[in-house]
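Need the bound structure for adenosine-5'-diphosphate, inputs here:
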Amino acid sequence: MAMSLAALAGFVVGALAILFYRNQIETRSRVDTTDAVETGAALPQGVASVLAVLPSSAVVLDAHDKVLRASSAARAFGLVKGDRLMAAELLALARQVRRDGEIRESEIDVAGHKFGQETTNFAVRVAPLGSHGQVLVLAEDQTERVRVEAVRRDFVANVSHELKTPVGALSLLAETIQDAADDPEAVTRFAGRMQHEAARLTYLVQDLITLSRIQGAEPIPTPGQVSIDEAIHDAIDHCNTKAVAKDITLVSGGTEGLRIWGDDELLLTALRNLIDNAVAYSPEHTRVVVSVRPAGDSVEISVSDQGIGIPEESLERIFERFFRVDAARSRATGGTGLGLAIVKHVAAAHAGEVSVWSKEGSGSTFTLRLPAFGGTAVPVPPSIPLETAL
Ligand code: ADP
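Answer from helper R.:
Posting the output first, comments after.
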């Protein structure tokens, strides 16, 4: 990106220099041309047309720092107001360039000029334009690139940290087993813990692969009709063992026969994650209900539990990668901290959304809203359990 900006800016500056050079020759050969250029009040011929096709914000200053030309983007970003360049840092750069004729590059932050607007980060390139003290300023908004880069760095740091824990534990356990070679009981105990850590590592790697697969598949490359009944049936089947261990009843209900337009594997993954969580964060002898209903052009699938709930202040963060309300509890239940991030990306890949309602101590309801595939729906009262897994 920075490279392409530099290349583009280099090209533009080069093009403008050629235009200016040609213009100088024309000026010399035609006496009547551009007294504006002579006084420094107008742009060299052709420069305006080049600036007009530029994707970046472009500003041309005259020898007295007055704005001769500014693209609408430069005005929209608040870099220019009237005939003044607003960013002091940029103005200082332009003056330096005018003084020594050197092209300069820099990064600057410009505070939002409208109330509530965030700071914009620009990659700027400033170059002299001809011999009348005019200066060209090109500014590329790179706020989004900087934000994405920061998120990526955070993610890599988090992944390294999450991987280090089980890998460190495995290496320690292996050493311990070596030392306890003549104590079969200890060997069995530590081998069991090694299996546990290895499983944790496997879940983490699987979730990372799923997440990266989904992120690369937005929107879904080959969508098709997906039966919601089948996805719910398979997801419940998958979570059954854990539910049985806690005597949690898994129930499904709502409208039968609904279909969505999407990817069956992804829908199954999302439902499995939601039901897994509902079971993991609920006490024994409770119920988890999965229900389906049509909602306009969409279908709503909700997973409700009678579990510990989520504190209000954490509600808007739970879909972030590696965010856990209680890290120790998540670890104890074998959580990777990626389950809900995967659900959010599955919803986004389907052009749908996921929302949450929760009350601490009462339970939570996660609702997936996905685009429906036109089909015949057979309404079934939600109170009738279609499937009870015990
Ligand atoms: P984890 O692997 O830790 O479960 P998730 O991304 O699936 O990661 O969930 C993030 C966090 O949201 C969990 O650590 C937990 O604190 C909270 N959470 C998710 N689902 C539920 C639920 N049904 N009830 C209570 N808390 C939940």
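Comments: The pocket of adenosine-5'-diphosphate is lined by residues 273, 277-278, 281, 305, 307-310, 318, 323-326, 330, 335-341, 364 (CB under 6 Å). The longest strand covers residues 363-373.
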